[in-house]
Amino acid sequence: MAAKIRLPLDPPHPARLQSNLGALQKLAPVHRVSTAVGDPAWLVTGYQEIKELLADPRLGRSHFDPDNAARSGASALLDGPRGDFETEHKWIATLRSRLQPFFSPGHVKAMRPRVEAITADLLDRLAKQGPSADLADALALSLPREVISELLGVPVEERPLLDEWTTAVSDAGDRERSMAGLAGLHGYGRELVGRKRARPGQDVISWLCEDGTLSDDEVAQLAMGVLFAGYETTAAALCVGTALLLDSPEQWRAVLDNPELAASVAEESVRAVSRLLPPVIRYAREDLEIAGTPVRRGELVMLAIYAANHDESVFPHADRFDVTREDNPHLCFGFGLRYCIGAPLARLELQTAFGQLVQRFPRMRLTVPAEDLTVRPTSFAAIPTSIPVTW
């Protein structure tokens, strides 16, 4: 029998709470649902259950029968099985061991001057083009694109192509467009790897090419994975954070008066970015139980990070964007086995952006209410189409 609950429950938006999902969370931690493309799935909404499942090796992104696996949407990369069922855990270990050095606290600390310089340059350009501008394009989308592209060694003139491909890949409504974007992204990755092998530079792809155990395809897969993960979510967090901060003048002033709050703004923005992101998808690798609910091998399990990040038992006044929130154990970077190795870099970018933006533009304000912002349709992250500001 088809599930009565059909996803998505609430349209994602930076300034609107997901009240239907919140109401569902209060009923039970696990629910039988139908995905946006009509496939059956389990939706988990409890904070503790999601935290444990994020670290549970009995769940994964691969499937033993990928052609017949349930899907959450039409995106070729994000809404269905990914990877090889037999080697998934081994590949995760390889990925983490090869990439961890580039995202270690020490390496990220060494990147701080460069991230600060890129941010300052973007804000210089913003000041010259103002006083009216689109903050999404000028800062929130541009900063993570420039940082991750520079880290990987993507030439400046080729970066606009990456925007086109990553946007296409995340299209949850058009399977053909998503597959074409994925093919373009991977094809570019392989071509770039070939160039780096011939002429290495001081960048992640060149360093990965020095690893004699990785093929060109594996280096390209790692690099393009870093590109996608390092851009989309950080850009979304910057968008939602700037929109909500600008929509609350008293909190903007608090950060202006106390620049050290930039770190807290960054964490609260990461917690809030779950407003823009769909549930994390996993497949059961074996039969298991979630909060007493039996889940069969191969079934789709969707982890509602938004619900977890707005659980009142964990986050007092969870619906409020609060730059002074001290205890903030959000789950947007995951937990355990799959904790995001890029978290230190994302935090550096966010802290730098908020710290510099408020100090450089103390009178900045939105020209429309945050409630009236529009978002990209059918995209993985419902990033605002623009954040119009003046100062």
Draw up the topology in text.
Elements: E1 5-6, H1 19-27, E2 30-34, E3 40-44, H2 47-54, E4 59-60, H3 88-99, H4 105-129, E5 133-134, H5 135-140, H6 142-152, H7 159-169, H8 175-198, H9 204-209, H10 216-246, H11 249-257, H12 262-272, E6 280-284, E7 288-290, E8 293-295, E9 300-303, H13 305-309, H14 343-360, E10 365-366, E11 388-390
Parallel strand pairs: 1-2, 3-9
Antiparallel strand pairs: 2-3, 4-6, 5-11, 6-9, 7-8, 10-11
Structure description:
Strands 1-2-3-9-6-4 form a 6-stranded mixed sheet, with helices on one face. Strands 5-11-10 form a 3-stranded antiparallel sheet. The protein has a two-stranded antiparallel sheet with strand order 7-8. Helix 8 (175-198) packs across helix 10 and helix 10 packs parallel to helix 14. It is α+β, with helices and mostly antiparallel strands and 391 residues long. Strand 7 (288-290) and strand 8 form a beta hairpin. It has a single domain (5-390), classed as Orthogonal Bundle (Cytochrome p450). 48% of the residues lie in helices and 9% in strands.
